[in-house]
Amino acid sequence: MINASLKQLATQLAQKKISSVELTQFHLDRIARLNPGLNAFVTVDAARSLAQARAADARIAAGKAQPLTGIPVAHKDIFCAKGWLTTCGSKMLANFVSPYDAHVVERLNAAGAVILGKTNMDEFAMGSSSETCFWGPVRNPWDRTRVPGGSSGGSAAAVAARMAPAAIGTDTGGSIRQPAALSGICGLKPTYGVVSRYGMIAFASSLDQGGPMAKSAEDLALMLNVMAGFDARDSTSLERPAEDYVRALEAPHTGDRAKPLRGLRIGAPKEYFGAGLGSDVGAAVEAALAQFEKLGAQRVAVNLPNAALSVPAYYVIAPAEASSNLSRFDGVRYGYRAPDYADLADMYRKSRAQGFGAEVKRRILVGTYVLSHGYYDAYYLKAQKIRRLIAQDFIRAYEQCDLILGPTSPNVAFALGAKASDPVEMYLNDIYTVAANLAGLPAMSIPCGFGEGGMPVGLQLAGNYFTEARMLQAAHRYQLATDWHLRQPAGVE
Amino acid sequence: MDWETVIGIETHAQLSTVSKIFSGAATRFGAAPNVQACAVDIALPGVLPVLNRAAVEKAVRFGLAVGATINRRSVFARKNYFYPDLPKGYQISQYELPIVTGGVIKIPFEGGEKLVHLTRAHLEEDAGKSLHEDFHGMSGIDLNRAGTPLLEIVTEPDMRSAEEAVAYAKELHARVRWIGICDGNMQEGSFRCDANVSVRPKGSAVLGTRCEIKNLNSFRFLEEAINYEVRRQIELLEEGGQVVQETRLYDPDRRETRSMRSKEDAHDYRYFPDPDLLPLVISAETIEQIRSELPELPQAKRERYMSEFGLSAYDAGVLTSSREVAEFYENLIRALGGGYKLASSWISVELFGALKRAGMEISQSPISSGQLADLLQRIQKNAINGKQAKEVFDAMWNGEGDAEAIIVARGLTQISDAGELEQVIDGMLAANSKSVEEYKAGKEKAFNALVGQAMKATKGKGNPALINEILKKKLAG
Amino acid sequence: MSLSLPEVKRVALLARIEITDGEAEAVQGQLNNIFKLIEQMQSVDTEGITPMAHAQDVVQRLREDRVSETDQHALYQSIAPQVENGLYLVPKVIE
């Protein structure tokens, strides 16, 4: 049961072999058993979840089931869900019960999926290790002395430890892909604008994108079918014909059964295999590339000359937008207000000083500084120009190839606290992931082996705009030929 | 030393939309606190703005009505600052690329016209309200107004006196109402002016340090505030002091301006393009569509009334004082098939007189243009004379029905039957032989006396023209 | 470049985040490390490049001017720190 795919679970539900209530209770029990050691969930509300499960069972009985009806899904605590505590990993929102549903939550609810609980995350999604959470760090199910990656570390750990069949996360600079890689699961960041940001608490508006996290590419496709779609309440949501990502999985690229990926041109830019890349990760990724070639894919030379500039540009743009997005947290209409203050200005300063954690404050300060008078051109505008250069690199590269493959993260999961003291070293974890956000391109991570300490390694597949179906199909073919995605950490049986 | 005053005006005109600029909440004035503040307006985490089409179209309408450039591409930016009535901690406005640039407003000036050039007009959202009446030492925040669409209209420093500033503000006020983008209600804050005031030695080319005066919600306050501020700055400078650039608040009770402490902590708005809103692109088709719907503007109407209808500049001005008046006049002359001057004088004298006495707007007039046309047609046909017409008008005003009914009820029919009049006049002449003698002796004035007697004899119903004619004939004979 | 202590404090004031002298000194070091990383941007010539503010090259969609929202202030204010008579209460606002 714990390794069943969403498709298999849906079939069992449809055939009444199991009810949604049973399936939900089964996972709630696992959470009760495993979560204390992992801290992946920050809010579990069995009564609410089971109520949704009962409704789902009724719907199935009525023959009105959709693919996700009755399936429990873990929600990153950044998605507003009506009546649920929605804290974004922050003391600032520790008491915030959302009065409304995010668009993604509406769609999952409408599909009959069950909200299994809210997962832990770096505060306001600012982090790569899920250590900046107000609720304490999340631990990696493969090794509890290590981090699961971040910021969607709770969702990653929940799926890795099989506490949830699938989860949703958000990705601003790698926050879906990097924890997926470090926790040995799959995660997809869609093209910017494919998934509505309405109700997703904003970190950096021009980079944020929600996406699915699950055990396989096939499960991701099933989730994305529900999550993707136009939303009039998000000006950046794109109006385009709906795609069936599940159906696309089966589309054979050629008639050749042994070489299902024939005709697929894959590029592995040297910039992603240079200094800073762990040898263990490099070896696993090279093996994966060989496997893709074995499946018929053709390796072509591409390069991304400005790749090294993506982290510096990202750490100007993301904090700049965040410093403004987080100004609404002022202790006036909701959230944390300091207990003691002299006057209005003091109330603001104390509420924000006490309500935000160290990393969030650091980024607000950086963002405030780069937007302030006299520095705007040198930092913010410069970063916007580099952003254009980076996007152009990809557009050129995708004239040569269909997918860019490489490591998701330069290293496997590191020990808790190992990088907590040095923000810059932490930021460099995002070296391979931030570019896709800057360019607005889709990218995903799938397990492709193990490295140092038997920790999972993630393979990043990046594609051109709106090529999610192609990426998922390629990943699915790879997973039909390999079993890395089926491995599960010890001690979660 | 002689000083020159330099004034620029920034006006916040509230665009008359039913919903807010970035949310679907209502903009109705006077609702209970926060009932019109939706999730977007109170800036709940995760909510996003979507732009209101009507706000954009009204901004374009304005641009076209002042001969400005409509920027085909404009960008929304965030103006970052903390204030309790600003829920997001930033105001969505337009900064580097506004929707409208340039344009000009003509104001009457020393008999002629003065041009006030516009720098720009941009779309932005209004903030909420802080209510200062005491809540045990705290302030109350009402966010109903947060997100109301505003068009901020900025002039060049073209004005040289409070009078000019007021003339500009009044012309702008009339203009935004004329084109139907703003209700102009200053009490409700739909039309708010800030004045940038500085002084410099006469003849100097460099501008002095300016102060921005806020909270000028009436033309009188605008004038008082500027005059006070000019005096203040001149006194300061003449005492060897310096003007500090700052935002000042006009206090109508004290009739003075004072520094706004709250705005003082060294400003740095950190403007940057709002990542939640994409560039606003307006097609040439849209602009032409809006242009085609634009009403004829007062300036053009005034000139047309003078050239086509032969009205005086004064009368043309009166009839174009508002769109409602012009519409009333145009309906009237359409019904009359002419009678431009007759219609003009009846509106500006009788109708306006009655409206003024009743303290009414023309839109509230109990006499419609159709009813008035019916009355004026009877004057044109000599069915009644002017004196009688005024009586009918008053009766109509008092709701005694239409002209026909009143004329019948009051027997106000004019005698235009020559035979009937000759009889009356013969009798009258017989009774006034003295006047007849005087007239024949060459005393012209006596003629008027006889006309008066004839009118009296017909109880005022005689057709004056006909009476004149008959009298002349008889006296000649 | 590097931030001076007064600059760190000024930025904290702009951001409305209370910061003690001790914290300011600690943060100063971290910020300057971050800016060392950011400075790498200066290594590339971006002359004539159009800044990229959005991930997609699309234009703003417009919504029709109609009222779609109903009064929810009771629900919204149920999670507010301090309210009275439908108003959010804050320390006295001085103008």
Protein architecture, described:
The complex is a heterotrimer of chains A (493), B (477) and C (95). Helix content of chain A is 39%, strand content 12%. Chain A has 493 residues and is of the alpha/beta class. Chain A has an eleven-stranded mixed β-sheet, sandwiched between helices. In chain A, helix 7 packs antiparallel against helix 16, helix 10 packs across helix 12 and helix 10 (310-325) crosses helix 13. The longest helix of chain A is centred in the C-terminal third of the chain and has 25 residues, at 376-400. In chain A, 65% of the residues are buried. The model of chain A has no long low-confidence stretch (mean pLDDT 96). In chain B, the strands form four sheets. In chain B, strands 1, 3, 7, 8, 9, 12, 13, 14, 15 and 16 form a ten-stranded mixed β-sheet that branches. With 477 residues, chain B is an alpha+beta fold. The relative contact order of chain B is 0.09. Chain C is of the alpha+beta class and 95 residues long. Chain C is built from three helices and three strands. Chain C has helices spanning 5-14, 21-39, 73-77, and strands spanning 62-63, 83-84, 87-91. Chain C has a two-stranded antiparallel sheet with strand order 2-3. Strand 11 (138-142) of chain B pairs antiparallel with strand 3 (87-91) of chain C, so a sheet runs across the interface.
Helix vs. strand class of chain A: alpha/beta
Radius of gyration of chain C: 22 Å
Strand order of the largest sheet of chain A: 1-3-2-4-6-5-10-11-9-7-8
**How large is the count of helical segments of chain C?**
3
Question: What structural class is derived from the secondary structure elements of chain C?
Answer: alpha+beta
Number of helices in the DSSP assignment of chain A: 16
Content of β-strand of chain A: 5-15%
The average pLDDT value of chain C, as a whole number, equals 95
What global shape of chain A is seen?
Answer: globular
The counted number of beta strands of chain C is 3
Order of helices and strands of chain A: HHEHEHEHEHEEHHEHEHHHHEHHEEH
Spatial gap, N to C terminus of chain C:
38 Å
